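Section 5: illustrative case.
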């Protein structure tokens, strides 16, 4: 409390707090030293608490301190150990007020340190709370502020730091290779099986940014690596259906890229924010909601072009125009869609793959063909759309199982639009078989979209009826598996 009023800092008791004892031992702090540091940390914030040696003893015996003592304990131990320690890691229940939460993930902090702290807190809560943000909804408009901030952000701050353990180029390279490995596993098995590992890596390496020592050049490379981990966390959260959580990770990834001064990677992040918004718009029931997502998707793609400031590589330019085309297609604007498709194709024709950034390697010709095929299919050219989507399917590497599922479902939808029900059912069955190999809500959503188009035909077509039954069986099996995992 303020004005010098002392607050009793304990209530209730439970089992011994072994994790807090281990942290104190690691930090080399006695009970009295922790008590003094907590009181001092509170005073810095003009918050006065009555924590003393006895209070700490009670905490170690399992007592839950009153707010804000748990937060102050975590703050003190973070400083002492040169890494971010969360409230739950101290063995306390995190009862941080939701209102006014500096780390809610939807805001732009305005400083690099603030952004990194937000990432640490966001990943920590995601790691420690199984139901974190499950009750929150994705809001397309929440992307507007960070996109505008990226366009108008001042020059990047210095990234050099002298805080703790020395970080060198080799350390950063290890992080980048680890992220690339996890990304490949994600493509092969789906995010449901590897997401927890990515969140742990993000939390650990964002802590490295906060509590390490490194030069300016190493700092930029380290921030780039952490931004890639944050992007992967966003993509995986979206893949398992945690849309509100994914939105927060995307926003902070954009903030990290701008903080590192990497405008091209920031433009890439905006392209993914656009794609994510459009994908959710495809599932919208209300027309006005679909159009809102379409407009926002176009705006985000164009924001990416502005952030790149005329320096986008050919592949990045192609990607930005392709996702813009997806937004136009969602809104039903055929002319704008075809214009953006043509621009995407022309930019890709100038590409020299060996001169593109490593983080853009995923956007190979197959990805472009799939994007453009979906656009043309959705604006009334299903035959040309099917041709491009089939080209993508034929050229995907075998390990990209989830991507193959996506394009198989998209190809089946294109065949349906061309009224080739037999071929649609055949490709759809292939998609269902492959979907059993991956843990991905996005794959299931794509198959449900196919099912909505097939079901009205099932009364007159055995092929349609069989495909409808197969998708139902897959989704029922996956739902039961997820329920068993949750319990």
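Designed sequence:
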């Amino acid at each position: 409390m303020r004005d010098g009023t002392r607050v009793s800092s304990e209530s209730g008791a439970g089992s011994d707090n072994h994790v807090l004892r281990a942290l104190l031992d690691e930090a080399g702090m006695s009970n009295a030293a922790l008590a003094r540091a907590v009181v001092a940390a509170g005073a810095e914030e003009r918050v006065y608490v009555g924590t003393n040696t006895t209070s700490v003893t009670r905490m170690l015996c399992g007592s839950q301190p009153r707010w804000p003592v748990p937060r102050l304990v975590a703050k003190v131990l973070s400083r002492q150990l040169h890494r971010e320690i969360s409230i739950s890691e101290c063995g306390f229940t995190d009862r941080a007020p939701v209102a006014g939460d500096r780390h809610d993930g939807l805001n732009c902090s305005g400083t690099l340190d603030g952004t990194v702290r937000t990432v640490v807190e966001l990943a920590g809560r995601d790691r420690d709370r199984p139901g974190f943000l499950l009750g929150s909804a994705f809001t397309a408009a929440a992307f507007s502020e960070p996109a505008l901030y990226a366009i108008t952000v001042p020059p990047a701050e210095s990234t050099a730091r002298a805080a703790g353990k020395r970080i060198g180029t080799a350390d950063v390279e290890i992080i980048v290779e680890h992220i690339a490995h996890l990304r490949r596993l994600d493509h092969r098995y789906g995010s449901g099986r590897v997401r927890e590992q990515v969140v742990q890596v993000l939390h650990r390496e964002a802590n490295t940014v906060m509590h390490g020592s490194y030069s300016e050049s190493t700092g930029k490379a380290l921030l780039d690596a952490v931004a890639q981990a944050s992007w992967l966390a966003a993509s995986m959260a979206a893949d398992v259906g945690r849309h509100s959580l994914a939105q927060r990770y995307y926003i902070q990834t954009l903030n990290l890229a701008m903080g590192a001064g990497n405008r091209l990677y920031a433009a890439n992040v905006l392209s993914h924010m656009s794609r994510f918004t459009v994908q959710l718009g495809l599932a919208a029931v209300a027309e006005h909601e679909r159009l809102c997502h379409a407009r926002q998707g176009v705006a985000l793609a164009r924001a990416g072009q502005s952030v790149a400031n005329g320096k986008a590589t050919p592949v990045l330019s192609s990607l930005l125009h392709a996702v813009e085309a997806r937004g136009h297609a969602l809104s039903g604007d055929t002319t704008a869609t075809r214009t953006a498709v043509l621009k995407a194709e022309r930019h890709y024709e100038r590409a020299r793959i060996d001169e593109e950034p490593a983080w853009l390697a995923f956007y190979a010709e197959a990805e472009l063909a799939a994007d453009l095929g979906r656009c043309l299919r959705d604006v009334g050219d299903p035959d040309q759309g099917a041709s491009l989507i089939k080209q993508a399917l034929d050229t995907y590497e075998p390990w990209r199982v989830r991507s193959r599922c996506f394009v198989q479902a998209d190809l089946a939808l294109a065949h349906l639009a061309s009224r080739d029900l037999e071929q649609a059912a055949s490709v759809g069955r292939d998609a269902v078989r492959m979907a059993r190999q991956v843990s991905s809500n996005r794959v299931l959503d794509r198959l449900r979209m196919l099912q909505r188009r097939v079901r009205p035909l099932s009364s007159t077509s055995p092929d349609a009826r069989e495909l409808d039954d197969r998708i139902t069986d897959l989704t029922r099996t996956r739902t039961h598996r997820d329920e068993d995992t949750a319990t």
